Fold this sequence. Notes:
With 287 residues, the chain is an alpha+beta fold. It has three domains: 5-71, Uridine Diphospho-n-acetylenolpyruvylglucosamine Reductase, domain 2 (2-Layer Sandwich), CATH 3.30.43; 73-186, Uridine Diphospho-n-acetylenolpyruvylglucosamine Reductase, domain 3 (2-Layer Sandwich), CATH 3.30.465.10; 204-284, Uridine Diphospho-n-acetylenolpyruvylglucosamine Reductase, domain 1 (Alpha-Beta Complex), CATH 3.90.78. It contains six helices and 21 strands. The protein has a five-stranded antiparallel beta sheet. A four-stranded mixed beta sheet has the order 1-2-5-3, with no helix packed on it. A four-stranded antiparallel beta sheet has the order 17-20-19-18, with helices on one face. Helix 2 (92-101) runs antiparallel to helix 4. The longest helix is centred in the C-terminal third of the chain and has 19 residues, at 255-273. The protein is globular and about 50 Å long.
Amino acid sequence: MSYNFLKKEDLSKYSWFNLGGPAEILFKPDNVDQILSFFKDQKKEVNILGAGSNTLIRDKGVKGVTIKLSPKFSYIDWIENNIIKVGAATLDKKLSDFGVKNSIKGFEFLSCIPGSIGGGIKMNCGCYGENISDNLLSIEVIDTNGKIQNLKKSEIKFSYRDCDLSKNTLILSANFIAEKGNKKEIQDKTTSLLDRKQKSQPRRVKTGGSTFKNPVNHKAWELIKKSDCQNMSVGDASISEKHCNFFINNGSAKTDEIEKLISKVRETVLEKTGVKLELEIKIIGEK
């Protein structure tokens, strides 16, 4: 079977930071058969790349095979009157828009998250008190042994911005509860959340979203500000003036500069507040 393989593909164009070196091999499968065939043959290390909205790719690139599902895995289908099946490459906003159009509540918050469904489930993405796992019923995955599994939500341990799925588990699709609601109320809530986001978060910048998770009983941005880190920079990497948990590539930064800025902030916050910040963004590649 032929594969959609790209050698030495520049990964910076797949990252919202616009940073990163080449993939040794980038695999963009169009269907499940291609993936199953690939896992039978492959011996290399595997990395999975979603929408690239919360991923920092190192300057030396990524060894092995980086898998990025093609747009063929972006779809939303009705399974039953109250269940929808969503492809893993479907953008969060597309699911939110589908909810508005079809009077389904519970997906409004996804309008504010610039990622894909597969990556969102891996990190249990969320905002404003809601998480993607809230309406999840089950997922279909392929493990590194090339075995397809259907996992119920109860078989996955979800936590704040995380779950216990292996990093090499490739999510193919997810089934969600589709609870009907009032279309105007759904639209109004979506508009309100987007307005709230636009007032508090930077727009049209090269960033990976929230850099650190919120520690228990704290907000990461408050700890950063309290520690006087908001004006820190390394090279062309800096912290957003609008939201100091957003780190920015101002145009010519290197991934190494973003990482050094992350370390600098973590060390300062720990020294001044006693709180150790944990990363929310994912870092992949060779140091």
